[in-house]
Design brief:
Layout (H helix, E strand, L loop, with lengths): L4 E4 L6 E2 L1 H14 L10 H4 L4 H8 L6 H16 L7 E2 L3 H10 L3 E9 H12 L6 E5 L10 H10 L6 E5 L2 H10 L2 E5 L6 H6 L4 E3 L3 H11 L1
Parallel strand pairs: 1-4, 1-6, 4-5, 6-7, 7-8
Antiparallel strand pairs: 2-3
Helix pairs in contact: 1-4, 3-4
Length: about 220
């Protein structure tokens, strides 16, 4: 199969945003008198949208009203601090440049809210790489529902089978399989190899440039 496009997850795949996510959530928790979590703990909290992040971060039994208040504070804090420490993973800019030079179409589909997704990409990765950028949008189900991935493929004028979806979580692998795309796992991200394999990854990369090599081999 020749691949004409790559769709990327964002957090844990293109950018290392864990410290900014953790710092913002811990500040929101502290504002309400709750204990913070180690940064590494947030590797398991993120990936399913901000509501689920806060749900996992608050103590068990926390009332919905309090959780919603923490979520509101988190949104404000994070929106003011989302590029304090966030940076691309190693070789990501080189990978994007090589894919663009090879004529591979690119998109981003993230469960992060839509506006921060676009702003972070512009500030951390720059403009011009992606034909489509989708964060979480009202009326569009979150991954692992394939709706956003299929919409991105349609925008790029490709079939799902011509796309690779690269992500770092089991949910991303399920998303790719649900969409009929090649499920590629980023081993440098937030989750472990075992989770990616258990959820149906078809290929795993330990370095972003391996994605370029994989496409070159399949398209030659």
């Amino acid at each position: 199969m020749k691949y004409r496009a790559v769709i990327f997850d964002l957090d844990g795949t293109l950018i290392d945003s864990l410290e900014d996510l953790a710092d913002s959530a811990n500040e929101a928790l502290a504002k309400h008198g709750f204990a913070s979590h180690p940064t590494a703990a947030y590797k398991k909290f993120v990936g399913n949208g901000v509501k689920q992040l806060i749900k996992k971060a608050v103590p068990a039994g926390t009332g919905e009203e309090i959780a919603d208040s923490i979520l509101a504070d988190y949104r404000i804090i994070y929106n003011n601090n989302y590029v304090n420490k966030t940076k691309p993973y190693g070789n990501i800019p080189e990978m994007l440049g090589k894919l663009r030079a090879a004529g591979i179409k690119m998109a981003v589909c993230s469960n992060k809210p839509h506006r921060p997704t676009n702003e972070i990409i512009e500030k951390v990765l720059g403009k011009g790489y992606f034909e489509v950028i989708f964060g979480e949008r009202e009326g569009v189900p979150r991954k692992p529902d394939p709706a956003a991935l299929l919409e991105a493929a349609e925008h790029m004028g490709i079939t799902p089978a011509e796309a690779i979806y690269l992500g770092d979580s089991g949910g991303d692998m399920i998303s790719a399989r649900n969409a009929g795309m090649c499920a590629a796992g980023a081993l440098w991200g937030f989750r472990e190899r075992e989770e990616l394999e258990e959820c149906g990854s078809q290929v795993l990369f330990s370095d972003p440039l391996q994605l370029v090599e994989f496409i070159d081999r399949n398209n030659s």
